[in-house]
Amino acid sequence: MTSNTCANGWCHQSFEVTDEDLVFFSKVSPVFGGKKYAVPPPTLCPNCRQQKRLAWRNERSLHKRACDLTGKSIVSLYSTDAAFTVYAQDVWWGDSWDALSFGRDIDLNRPFFEQFAELMKIVPHMGMFISHGENSDYCPYSTDYKDSYMCISGRKGENIYYSFMLNDSRDCMDCYACPQSELCYECVNCVHVYNTIHCIECKNSNDLAFCMNCESCQNCIGCYGLRQQKFHVFNKSVSEEEYHRLNLELRISSSALQEFKKKALAFFLGFPRRNAQMINTEHSSGDYLVNCSNAYCCFLSEDLQDCAYVWNTPHSKDCADINYSSKTQLIYNAMSNVNSYACIGCMGSWDMKNSLYCFQSFYSSDLFGCIGLKHKKYCILNKEYTKEDYETLVPKIIDMMQKNGEWGEFFPLQLSPFAYNESIAHEFFPLSKVQAEELGLSWEEHVESVSGTTKTIPADRLPDSIRDIPDDIVNWGIQCETTGRIFRIVAQELRFYRERNVPVPHLHPHERHRKRLRFINPRKLWDRECAKCQKPISTSYAPERREIVYCERCYLETVY
User: Fold this and answer.
1) Domain range summary for the chain, segments of one domain joined by +
2) What's the per-residue H, E or C state across 85-107?
3) CA 157, CA 509: separation in Å to the nearest integer?
4) CA-CA distance, 206 to 216, in Å (whole number)?
5) What is the pTM of this model?
6) How do residues 10-62 score in pLDDT, each as one tens digit?
7) What are 284-342's pLDDT values in tens digits?
8) Residues 148/141, Cβ–Cβ less than 8 Å
9) What are the DSSP E strand ranges found in 258-403?
């Protein structure tokens, strides 16, 4: 194990490179002509490496613009003033253009990333990532969604709004990572819950409100850690009449709802928390892991084996430093990859094999520095080669990148196709506009344009009860209480609030998402002691936080 210092001038954090890391780098290093081209240890700390990758993914800043080939209006991840060509998704996949026509020779006397940036400016970008969506044009990175809006990274759902990673769910609003759920509102990390509001980490339950860590429960309010209970309020048994009375009372107004939320969160602080949310997981560190083994510093993933520094990447093996991917093996320093094998530095690419530093390329193998290719082999900077010429030229490029300090590194922050404050890097590593511009990063000035409104009203002047909200609120512009940004309530949304008997939100959807993220622990680990037995533990609860944190054994002894 060696100790290194982050090469970023604004960071200089120390970090470790373990013997296991070195074994992985050797395993993922490509071989050409019988020679292995070793991937070097990283020069940046894990956080700075994450930041670089996350800057290449925009989930929430969507734009109306024209397809640059057909002229038709589209919803796009890219703004109208983006410095490159953008095509509608169906046009991008069509036969009316050829990405190979943009091919160029590699210059072995110039930095590779500089040449890749030039290629990015001329090859058309796919405006949106949606697979098999129906009436769900505003759901990037989603698959098989119907009649949904602003549901991100979901798989198979219907009538989902303003949510993230809701798989196999329906009729939910403002939820985060809640698979197999229905009729839920403002829930975080819940599984198989029904008719539930403002709950955190609950499972197999129904008719809950403001509960945390409850399983197989029903008709509970403000409860923590219950198992197989019903008609409880703040962990005490109540009559069915008392439950229904309070359930109506806390929904009377927005202020009543927020007041109850504060009371519930304060109540939860009196109970111990598990140091890490892990199910059927061994020899691993991180949080929110299921069925994993030998996963080091990994988060929100399942079925990982021999992985490190992985976020939101299920069903993967022998991977390190990847995010928002799935079904990958031998992948390093990558982002948004699906069903890929033996790749380094690839972004937004699916079904790839033996490829290096590619962007938006699909169903291909043996590519280097390519953009927008489909069903291709042996290409460099979008120029096609014979197998022999490809395997002769790629080692020369790697030698050049090694001399320039590029080999093994992810694309620079400055090359991201998105403004920094549009990317999810800004969610986890926030910067001010001044800080971003000092680093040479672009910044998007949000100009609110809410068309078709009859008036604009500050959120704090809305009627307090959902019963007093008029039908024509769908024609109003509402000013967020926190950010001042204008947003609208759509008809489907208003119907949901009325059916669930909850007040209309006072915050912009992006601000509501930001607040939900507070209930997901940081993707970072600290060393501290179990509050009961003083055993050393690794946890995503920072030492200065107020929660009582137990090791796995003490927690299970307490709960069960």
Assistant:
1) 131-274, 455-510, 526-559
2) CEECHHHHCCCCCCHHHHCCCCC
3) 19
4) 8
5) 0.93
6) 898 999 999 999 999 999 999 999 999 999 999 999 999 999 999 999 999 99
7) 999 999 999 999 999 999 999 999 999 999 999 999 999 999 999 999 999 999 999 99
8) no
9) 272-274, 278-279, 286-290, 293-296, 298-302, 304-311, 316-323, 326-335, 338-344, 350-356, 362-368, 377-380, 383-384
